[in-house]
Every structure is written in C-alpha cells, then in structure tokens.
C-alpha cells in the first residue's frame, strides 16, 4: 500500500506533466482548476476570490447562502431572527447558538470563544483584515457561554448578518491563531498556509501561488462525507486551458470562472465530457444616463449637479428620449451573442436574489418601430433631414464611453447601430480600465467624473441584502466636485421619494418587507430613466460529467457544498 508521501509525489508529478494546465482524474480525488492560484488560505487576509475559495474547503461560517441567495444554517441549527428571539427587538444585537458536537479537524470542540476570536482577529486595526466591512457597526462580540455568542452593534441593524455569514468571514481556531492577531498576522505562515478548520477537508500540502492538496477531515460532522478522500486545488494557466481540461480532455473535475468566447465554450461543451454551469447574483451590465450637462463649454460646471436644476441634461431626462433609447436595444441578442451562458437580458437593476427581483419591468423586447413612434408623438423630430432628431433645437447626439474590453466594444457597436435607426447619433469612446475605474481626480476620463452623456459598466450588490447597494442612488451620494467625485450616485439622479424608501429600509427587519421596498426602488430607478439595464451577468464554471452534486453558487463559495460531491 502506498504511503501518503508516495501519493503526494505522484500527485505533484501528474501536475507537472500537464504544464500547470490540467490534472489527472482518479476515483477518490477531486481535481479543481482555478486559473488564479491561491497565495495563502486565510480569508481574513484574502487578496481575491482564489484565497476565499481555496480556504472554503477547510474553514466554514456560522451560516451561508444557497444558490438562490437564501441564508441557511451551517454551524448552527437556526438562523437568528426577531421572531425567534435571536435578534433583539431594538435590532442592536444578534445571538447565535452553535450546533452540538461540531469539532475542529484536530478533534477539539468548536466553541463560542473561537467565534469571538475570529471577529477580534479581523477587527484588530493592525491585522490588515481585507473583509473588515463585513463587521461594520460591530461594537463587541461576546461569548455568553461555550455554545452561544452575541454580536452587539452600535446602531440598529435591520440586516445583522454581516459577520460570520458566507465564505468571506468563516470561523478560525483561536488555539491556532491566538499568537497571530494584529501585526503578527502576515508572518504566521504555518497558520495561514494550513488553517485548522471544521470543513470537509484538511490541508495536507500548500505550495503558494501553485497548488493545494487536501485530505478528508476525519472528524467531519457528517458521516460518510466527503465522498472524496483527497482534493487538489490547482492554480495557474488560463480560463481556456482550464475549460478544455474539464470539457474536452476530461483531465480535471472542476474549472472556475470561464471568461472565454461563448462560441469557443459551446464547442468545448459539445465534446460531451463536461457541463457548463452558471450562477447569477446581482451583477448587471448597464447604461448610465448623465442627468447633468457634460458640455465642455461649461468649464468647471461640466457634469456638475446643481440643486436648482439649472444644469440638467438637455434631453436625456425627457421620457420619450430615454425610453426610446431603451426600447431600441436588443438585450437578448447582446446576452446570447456576447455573453453566452453567462448573460441574460434584463430590465431590472436589481435582478436577484429572487425575492428582490421586480416582476414589473419585463420582458422588454427590442421594438425599433415603437421607439420611433414614441419620439414622433413627443415631437422629437428630424427637422433638417440630416437623419438626427432634435429636442428643443438640440440634436440628439450622445457620447458613449466604457472601459476597453472586446465584449463592451461589441456592445457599443450594436447599440450605436440601433440608436442610429431611431435618429440618434452616437460617438463611441473606450478608455483603459485602469483609467476609467481609477481615482485620479485630475483625469477627465474616469467613470465617476462622467464627462459624457452615456457610460456603461457592470456593478452589483456585495451580498444578498441590497440596502447598501441601493443607497448608491441616494441624493446625498451624488458625485460632485465637493466630494472629489467620489459619490456613488454617478448619474446625478435626485429623487426625494427614493431617499424616503431608503430611510424606511434602514429600520425594517422583516425580509419580505425589505424585499418590497427594494422592488419599489428598483422600479423607480428603471422607470424614471436613471439607468438602462442591459445584461444580467453570471459566473460561468464547468464540471466533469462524472462528478455529481455540484450546485453552482454565485452568492457564496462555488465550492460551498463540496462535501456533497460524488463521482459516479
């Protein structure tokens, strides 16, 4: 019988033989390809998705999200709410009760003291915790007893599920990390490379920026899980080679983040070795309509919002104009041809989770004839026969910018053509992403300065609760020179009724009521011309057809239920 050392050497030789692009299958090993390699396994110091995902096989949160964005208990038996007494009536605390019998992989019991320590580790100002925003407004975390932990907030928190919910903030073992808190955190290689966890796997070997090998956790709480005795998390290569290893050659079991041409991906899937899977969260590619005047002749007042409304856009706030522009777009064509499995046409800016998705704005098919009729009826005509309509004497000419990206430039070209068919002339601009999304206050080309009429990019909520995301259109968030162009309300949209809905959400704890408010805000944004949503963007991965039980999840770790995976 081979020793563990021999098995490890064989695994390393297999990895090397494929040049870092693919790995060999075996019945008892699940092989995972991430074309970005993990640099360590401590999510609290994570530099990106690769660290969070690689750690998710070992470290677990108290609760997590399923593929529908629904919170499910994980290391607890019940999600605390106001109704069951787990959340205080004044919304300033949440109390979690750990499930009985959960142990760390070393056999020691998980306790509330580990949970308290995990919070303290992140909240220590010297730790450099990259997910500190998940602990916003946390005043203290206390162990009520060994199995009960209370999180206290310094304000009322209608949605108190930031800390320890989802793979960004799992529980780490106090006994292992207690000497690593604060400034010592980054130097604790032994702990950061091989954390002890409660998850289905245990780190056997970690090679930074390359490969992680795991063995099954002998003390995992679910009998018979995981089905695989080993797991290999291989990094490096590129998305196309990872897709090929799963879909064509069958040399790997799972490939992550397959950002490649839909035509190429479809051809690979046709080989019959694997299945492309998609998970959708909240990301939407959208057009933003500038509600201020971006005319360079205005000098320092260019694209500047003014409270008296004197610097509004000359025609983009006219309902007939922006509605016709929206109606002229074939969202389904953009999604299918340019995004493939990873895109669905949408007219909602908040398309998920399902409970938050408005039923009031779709379907929204392209209709060029109706768009032209709408403009005709509103008297927005081409008076001089040059093919360009005018509103109040101003020609409908727009400057449309986005970041440099092949999919986005193809989207721009399509939309320019469709808008030409309704009498709107479009100048296209694409800007290097580092500049477009940069924070250089002197640059005229940043998305926040918005010195054009239209701009396009993708954004979405950072979790399942949309309150913070939707607050990005609050009136006091308008991007302006006074806030160094750093406000989130880039479109300069002012609506006091919308602000009132946000104020109401800030004191509403019942999920269904929060969803109703979010839907109202979504409808207000898309039905008043603040934004034109285009494509609901998903995360695309693939698994080999021999692996069963994979449940793609865009709300949590894609590997969230790896304990359930089997080979058949």
Describe the model.
Strands 1, 7, 8, 9, 10, 11, 12, 15, 16, 17 and 18 form an eleven-stranded mixed sheet that branches. A three-stranded antiparallel sheet has the order 4-6-5, with helices on one face. Strands 2-3 form a two-stranded antiparallel ribbon. A hairpin with a 2-residue loop joins β13 (390-391) and β14 (394-395). Mean pLDDT is 93; it is low at 1-24. The chain has helices at residues 4-17, 49-55, 112-123, 174-177, 189-193, 239-247, 262-269, 319-327, 331-339, 368-377, 406-420, 433-436, 467-470, 496-505, 511-527; strands at residues 29-34, 63-65, 71-73, 93-97, 138-145, 148-153, 201-207, 211-216, 230-235, 254-255, 274-289, 343-345, 390-391, 394-395, 397-403, 425-431, 454-459, 531-544, 547-548, 566-567. It is of the alpha+beta class and 568 residues long. It starts with a helix and ends with a strand. It folds into three domains: 1-58 and 199-273 and 545-568, 3-Layer(aba) Sandwich (D-Maltodextrin-Binding Protein, domain 2), CATH 3.40.190; 60-189, Dipeptide-binding Protein, domain 1; 281-460 and 531-537, Dipeptide-binding Protein, Domain 3 (Dipeptide-binding Protein, domain 3). Helices cover 24% and strands 20% of the residues. It contains 15 helices and 20 strands. The radius of gyration is 26 Å and the shape is globular.
